[in-house]
UniProtKB/TrEMBL annotation:
GO molecular function: ATP binding; phosphorelay sensor kinase activity; protein dimerization activity
Pfam families in the cross-refs: DUF7134, HATPase_c, HisKA_3
Stored InterPro entries: DUF7134, HATPase_C_sf, HATPase_dom, His_kinase_dom, Sensor_HK_TwoCompSys, Sig_transdc_His_kin_sub3_dim/P
E.C. code: 2.7.13.3
Residues covered by the Histidine kinase domain: 298-388
TM stretches of this protein: 12-32, 75-96, 103-123, 129-147
Reactions that this protein is recorded to catalyse: ATP + protein L-histidine = ADP + protein N-phospho-L-histidine
Enzyme class: transferase
Coiled coil segments of this chain: 157-184
Keyword set, alphabetical order: ATP-binding, Coiled coil, Kinase, Membrane, Nucleotide-binding, Phosphoprotein, Transferase, Transmembrane, Transmembrane helix, Two-component regulatory system
Protein's recorded name: histidine kinase
GO cellular component: membrane
Amino acid sequence: MVTWARTHPRVVDGAVAAAVFVINVPVQAAYVPGHLPRYPVALLVSAGLCLPYVYRRDRPVASFAATALVSLAQWGLGVIPAWANVMLFAGLYTVAASHDRRVSVAAAAVVELGAVLAALRWGGHPLEMAFQVFTATIFIVSVWMWGHTIGTRRAYVAGLRERAEQLERDRDNQARIAAAAERARIAREMHDIVSHSLSLIVVQANGAAHCMHSRPESAQRALTAISDIGQNALAEMRHMLEVLRDGTPDRDPYAPQPGLAQLQRLVEDVRRSGLPVKLTVHGEPRDLPSGIDLAAYRTVQEALTNTRKHAGSAVNTAQVWLRYGDDALELRITDDGRGVTAPSEQSSAGGHGLVGIRERVAAYGGSVRCGPAAGGGFEVVVTLPAQAGTPYVHAGSGRVARSSADVTNPPTT
């Protein structure tokens, strides 16, 4: 019943207005004894007082104004107030509950003026008139305060509901943004794994096909390298899919991702593809935040892959220079290839190459510079924030190699 009343407010208000009018009919007859010709006028006044109540929710001020005008006509016609005049107070309540204080106080002042006029016309003795005005004033103030309190409470509840809906919308937006960021991250990871591995596999496969008959031992080494590279890529892909898959994987899905501890193995894979690479390490390797460690590894991987794909046979050597600073990690990947014809920002897999490097580095507040090197070739220079920590030791692959064959003196900048 309550739910139905809330969904059909005009029907409810119409029923209330009709009930008041019906109750007022015999009461109004008692107020006009000996004046039956005026009874129809009194009924018309009663109807005029009750009818605007039906529209009080849609147009509170207009409904109250119409009721006030009928009351003024009642005063002018000399029709004695009866039960129907309670509708003026109902209109005051509605205005106080739905409008600001300025409008509601003005409505209360109109009702107060009507009470004074009614007391002057039908009050009789001055003391009786004063009592009537005093009583009416208390009632008017009570109705106004009741309506104002209800209106304030409704506004507070509406504000809470609006804030809750806004928070829900913000939560949904943040979830969509997080999902988009995660998709972008996965796309970068997939690109880095697939592009790098397939590039090396294609190079090794071409080399094996070229020397299969003339140098079968070289072809065998190339095929072995293809197998190793494929297995490494497959392991990384499985790791990524296990993180995304529901349920309990066979192994820990949150095992460490590739990092600088695997940099030596990455360089060796690239060497086996036919690209001479020199690795230079300056400073003491140490623990880094996992995100920065992965970003640094992927940066080197992507830069070497681009060198392999775009510079091709024009490259005689590539160099990877890594420096552990007190509060920063510096990377420089250079080659002596084509220089100005090196890969552009949009060249790799629809823009995931150097753009992916920029996005990774920017996510951690680092900086990237890509372009032709001063002495020819192409270079990628990256700086990542890295707080000082303990020396980095990886039980599985060891620390980054620093043998004389792999490590050269750091370049002067």
